[in-house]
Specification:
The chain has 355 residues and is α+β, with helices and mostly antiparallel strands. It folds into 3 domains: 121 residues, no CATH class; 111 residues, hypothetical protein PF0899 fold; 66 residues, no CATH class. The protein is built from 7 helices and 22 strands. Helix 1 crosses helix 4.
Length: 355
């Protein structure tokens, strides 16, 4: 019945109906993937700048003897970062004859529009994961490596490995990798990877280890595994999908002559890494690792040596503001023209190769 109603709605070229169909398909894919938090309150249009709060936390518990205290403490951070609203667009073309002959063909196109919009947003979702700043470097993707990565996550519900959503089981903690890295993981753990049939519906799911659901993703970075929760990245959606059905009197001469119709679908969104404490890079030897080195100014020091050998030019910020001048980079050192003040927090953002 639902399929028949959908076909009728499309067949009459009801723009509102088509928009709702595509939005439902897009939203269901996004809500069920379990890799992000979804916020549908975004306002604006493509190119608009929005400031997004990005949270982080560092520190852990320690063993303390009688009469002794902790050597460090847990710290949290909040940085406001600017993101630009993106527009994902997809479209397909069909003829008047195709619509009259078989409306299912048009329904199939509408379905693909929703999925293709999700695919584009999902690619940006993975791109935000790549901004994670904490890492565990391992020679082998074995059981211990995954446990060590999970231990770095600020994971409140540590005993809850899954949650129920719309009648399906969504993993609370997941790991994403490419096919080659998955092969190395399978060789390293063999029967330690257990297949959970309640997650069988989820695209890319291959098994679970230490409570972490493993997923394979096409075009993921080789030798890099992201371990995290859905709290790490947020997708900010503008409510609804904008559709445009180009009618006969709007078509060019050639399209009108051939009785061709064009259906466009657009989704406005922002993908943002909003909680860096909820995701960790599990890097194998040779992987490109992202890190943010934080230093404290003292009013005297002008030279800061990087902890790792940078493979790109670092992005330097002071108190959350990206600098475009006032420092130089060379010999793996950041040298300021004027020493940062004692109240200044310096962030040095760069990549290095895991070894």
């Amino acid at each position: 019945m639902a399929q028949t109603a959908s076909i009728r709605g499309v067949a009459t070229l009801n723009q509102g109906f088509v928009s709702n169909e595509i939005e439902d398909l897009y939203a269901s894919h996004l809500d069920l993937n379990g890799f992000c938090t979804v916020d549908n309150e975004l306002q604006g249009t493509a190119g608009d700048i929005r400031k997004i709060n990005v949270y982080g936390a560092t520190g852990s518990a320690e063993k303390v003897a009688e009469g002794q205290g902790n050597s460090g403490y847990i710290t949290t951070s909040l940085v406001e970062k600017e993101y630009r609203i993106e527009c994902a667009q997809s479209w397909f073309q069909y003829s008047d004859e195709a619509l009259m002959r078989d409306p299912v063909a048009v329904q199939t196109g509408v379905t693909r529009l929703g999925v293709s919009l999700f695919d584009q947003v999902n690619a940006d979702l993975y791109g935000e994961m790549a901004k994670a700043s904490r890492a565990v470097v391992a020679s082998t993707p074995d059981f211990d490596a995954f446990v060590d990565a999970a231990a770095k996550i600020d994971f409140v519900d540590g005993n809850e490995t899954a949650r129920e959503y719309q009648g399906r089981t969504i993993p609370t903690l997941w790991a994403i990798m490419d096919a080659k890295t998955l092969a190395s993981t399978r060789k390293a753990m063999k029967d330690q990877i257990v297949y959970d049939p309640t997650l069988a519906w989820s695209q890319g799911y291959v098994g679970t280890v230490a409570g972490i659901a493993l997923y394979v993703k096409q075009n993921a970075s080789e030798k890099m595994i992201y371990v995290g929760t859905d709290k790490a990245v947020t997708i900010f959606n503008k409510t609804g999908v904008e559709t445009e059905i180009v009618a006969k009197n709007q078509r060019g001469t050639d399209d009108a002559n051939k009785r061709l119709n064009n259906l466009f679908a657009r989704k406005y969104y922002i993908a943002a890494l909003t909680n860096d404490s909820q995701i960790v890079q599990l890097a194998l030897a040779g992987a490109s690792v992202h890190t943010i080195q934080v230093e404290q100014g003292d009013g005297t020091t002008t030279v800061f040596t990087l902890d790792e050998t940078a493979t790109d030019t670092p992005v330097v910020s002071v108190n959350g503001v990206i600098l475009t001048s006032g420092y130089t980079f060379g010999s793996n050192k950041v040298t300021f023209t004027t020493a940062p003040a004692a109240t200044d927090v310096i962030s040095i953002d760069y990549h290095y190769t895991a070894s």
